[in-house]
Amino acid sequence: MLPRRPLAWLAWAFRGPPGPRGACAPGAAGAWGRRVGPRARRGCCTAPGTPEVQLTQERYPVRRLPFSTVSEQDLAAFERIVPGGVVTDPEALQAPNVDWLRTLRGCSKVLLRPRTSEEVSRILRHCHERNLAVNPQGGNTGMVGGSVPVFDEIILSTALMNRVLSFHSVSGILVCQAGCVLEELSRYVEEQDFIMPLDLGAKGSCHIGGNVATNAGGLRLLRYGSLRGTVLGLEAVLADGTVLDCLTSLRKDNTGYDLKQLFIGSEGTLGVITAVSILCPPKPRAVNVAFLGCPGFTEVLQTFSTCKGMLGEILSAFEFMDAECMQLVGCHLNLASPVQESPFYVLIETSGSNAGHDAEKLGSFLEHSLGSGLVTDGTMATDQRKVKLRDEQEDCPIAGPLEPEVQPPVSGNSAKSCVE
Amino acid sequence: MLPRRPLAWLAWAFRGPPGPRGACAPGAAGAWGRRVGPRARRGCCTAPGTPEVQLTQERYPVRRLPFSTVSEQDLAAFERIVPGGVVTDPEALQAPNVDWLRTLRGCSKVLLRPRTSEEVSRILRHCHERNLAVNPQGGNTGMVGGSVPVFDEIILSTALMNRVLSFHSVSGILVCQAGCVLEELSRYVEEQDFIMPLDLGAKGSCHIGGNVATNAGGLRLLRYGSLRGTVLGLEAVLADGTVLDCLTSLRKDNTGYDLKQLFIGSEGTLGVITAVSILCPPKPRAVNVAFLGCPGFTEVLQTFSTCKGMLGEILSAFEFMDAECMQLVGCHLNLASPVQESPFYVLIETSGSNAGHDAEKLGSFLEHSLGSGLVTDGTMATDQRKVKLRDEQEDCPIAGPLEPEVQPPVSGNSAKSCVE
Asked: What Enzyme Commission number does this protein have (chains A, B) (predicted)?
């Protein structure tokens, strides 16, 4: 079928919205400049001049359970377990007490920074014996308040547990401590021609242990599946200090119940994840991004089916957002749509091993979609500008700050607009 | 790099081994004709004239736990729960009492054939109250004796629980009862341009519930991952009759602990899986198979790395076997290697959406591998004969009847030779 009109093969360029930027984005949102992307921004929530966040215990009707409070003897014990890793400075404790969205604030007076699973085990054993509450914390980039204390829980930070333990260059299996930052792991495995099986906006700050503990989905879920399939093993320390070693690196291990699965997505409620073994796919040699306008939700679904058929194995992301979401992104982030106004927008990413083959497949798909009316306008990103299209999609939660914890079944990726 | 010699682009043809076939395959193995493949064979283990299998309780020092025995009142109760679904005929009970390898035999006197989860629940509740032991059974194709009773356990067959409950043609999510036969499901989803994410030799008899209960890997693990990622939900009935409904069909569901994972691979020890929700990938439009000879294990690993890089997203299987395994296959199954004798053999399968692109990628890879000495001989299957190469690989366990329950980390698929 011939396309009804030629595809707009324009290089993607960010244009400012017509009205003044401040008009629709007052307050905190207005302070977000374009080039301070989520990656850099996360973790910077306590910049000087930012108004103080109300305490969670004052904002919500929560009740502290009868845990003990940290004594001088406890601090001395912690200092013996993690020499130099006990933080009690109130200023240093401000940031880890507040969540990234700045809606929740705890009043923890101690943060511990262990370096090994053994230290985590000794800390938890002590806390268990003393009936002290503990709040594990990774990069503190979560958007549902799970990474900050509600009251005065001890914050157990994985920040110094950031060593890669092994990487197998044939199988692509990475074993590392829980505190490794996702972006650093990405760089590490990319040097060896692999990629991490997950990628998300907070990658510059988030820890792999936190990703696993929250069962993060991210931008590569459609292609590489969920962490339930790619995490091959993990090590966790239970509340009483028991170290649970499930750090296998077998792709199929039927030797008993798969206990590690209980920890994936458990958000620290069953124990502290201290190390993970994860399967990294080979690095694709070619990545293309297309941004399309769709006339309706039916066409979004049909476009999804068509592109699964025509792009097949190279399809690595399919995301959509509605007109309202695009408007919010435009208002808050000084961005405008690269295609004509539409009820729905679709972002398609392909990742493959042969640039020529991929471009041919994507070209055929785009021509077919435009020709059959599934898509009313479209643009394909070129080279260095590809990532910017991606950035816009990653930034959606900033415009409407709710994070989906349940993915709708019709989309394999972060269909943010329909849950915001 | 130029290849040292041209690739043998021969169509694959099965040749008989030089010696008389019976010489190396006496007894049961000798009775296996070439065209009675594992798919047809499984379930035919009690053909007339086959010698009786020794009772498990006589062969091994096992002790019956103090369970009750089935009474007339129990049979009447079962008849009320599953009218017409209570089997007590000794002849009909012969086959379900013996495992596929014919090494184990129970002496169950009752087999129940429920059609719904509710019936399974009522059966188990009754057995729980009466302290009766139960042995769930799917297609009885397992090779580790998990599907047959040890003593006189009641066999709870899923054979009549074979309804497809729903299929979503956009997302490819299939929801079906546990007793659906894998091959029938494959046919069903293939009609709608999808495939099942797993495929294995026993597909003609095995039940999807049994596949999930044993966490079957199979021939598509490398491409589509394990059932831990593709099974989105399941329904199970616990020993006391409680129905556990985790039959979600969301790709990412973080609403609590992922309890279904405990049942995947639990082999019926935690409950009876009665329904599953599974994610089916789109059907590839082109499939190619290549069979290669490798001079050593180091070259096998290097070939794996090279082919992951060069074939990338279209690589759907990489399997290897050693010379001894090939010899056994040749002896027992009247097959000969299509390539010259080598210390190791590698089978590569590609599945993609564009036949031309795939052939080009595979051709480049094969030329490179031959040129660099990683591979000493190779052949690529053509059209209708492709599946025969696959059959040979599927038949490996027949030649040396041990099934790997742990996959070695260097191979993503059923590297049978190294565990047999």
From this structure: 1.1.99.39
Range of the domain at A194: 164-251+259-279
Residue type present at position B62: V
Q: Is residue B377 part of a domain?
A: yes
Residues 179-198 of B with CB under 8 A from A: 193
B249-269 in b/e form (b: 16+ CB < 10 A) is bbbbbbeebbebbbbbbbbbe
CB atoms B262 and A265 under 8 Å: no
Average pLDDT over residues B43-59: 73
Could you give phi then psi for residue B384, rounded to 5 degrees? -65, -20
Residue of B nearest to A168 (CA): B410
The mean pLDDT of A317-326, rounded to a whole number, is 89
- Classify residue A63 as exposed, middle or buried by CB count within 10 Å of its CB (0-12, 13-18, 19+): exposed
Residue B184, classed as helix, strand or coil, is: helix
User: Do the Cβ atoms of B306 and A170 come closer than 8 Å?
Assistant: no
pLDDT at A49: 63
List B residues 247-266 in contact with A (Cβ-Cβ < 8 A): 249-255, 257-258, 261-262, 264-266
Residues 328..357 of A with a Cβ closer than 8 Å to B: which?
A: 351-354, 357
A230 and B CB contact within 8 Å:
yes
- Whether B353 and A313 lie within 8 Å, measured CB to CB: yes
Same-domain check for residues B152 and B216: no
Minimum distance, in Å, between the CA of residue B175 and any CA atom of chain A? 13
Can you give the CATH number for the domain in which A130 is found? 3.30.43.10
Whether the pLDDT of residue A134 is over 90: the answer is yes
Residues A194 and A263 in one domain: yes
A266 within domain boundaries = yes
- Per-residue pLDDT tens for B272-297? 999 999 999 989 988 888 999 999 99
What are the Cα distances from residue A324, in Å, to A345, A399, B17, B218? 10, 10, 70, 45
Q: Are residues B274 and B301 in the same domain?
A: no
One domain, residues A153 and A246: no
Q: What is the largest distance, in Å, between two alpha-carbon atoms of chain A?
A: 78
Mean pLDDT of B43-57: 71
Is residue A102 one of the residues assigned to a domain?
yes
User: Is residue A150 a part of any domain in this protein?
Assistant: yes
How large is the average pLDDT for residues A156-179? 96
**For residue B184, what is the domain's CATH number?**
3.30.465.10
How many domains does one find in chain B?
A: 3
Closest to A258 (Cβ–Cβ): which among B257, B265, B304? B265
In this predicted structure, which of A82-86, A132-136, A367-371, A391-395 has the lowest mean pLDDT?
A391-395
- By the CB < 8 Å criterion, does A311 face chain B? yes
Do residue A250 and residue B405 have CB atoms under 8 angstroms apart? no
Same domain, B192 and B135: no
Q: How far apart are CA B62 and CA A244, in angstroms?
A: 32
pLDDT (mean) for B10-39: 31
Residue B328 belongs to a domain with what CATH number? 3.30.70.2190
Sort out which chain B residues have CB atoms less than 8 A from A361's CB and list them. 353-354, 357
